[in-house]
Amino acid sequence: MGLYDKQKVLRTITDCSKLYERNLNHRDFLYIVRDRKSKPFYKEVTYIPTNFLHLMGVVTKLSPIDFYNACLSGKLSQNDFSLRADGASVQKANVSIPLMSIHKRATMFGDSDEIYTDVLFGNVRGCIGFKKSGDSRFYKPNTLLEADITKKAISTYPVLAVYQKASTELLYTSICYKSNILKNIEASSLVWSEEIQALIIDNSSLVLDL
Question: Is 207 or 115 the better-scoring residue by pLDDT?
Answer without folding.
Answer: 207
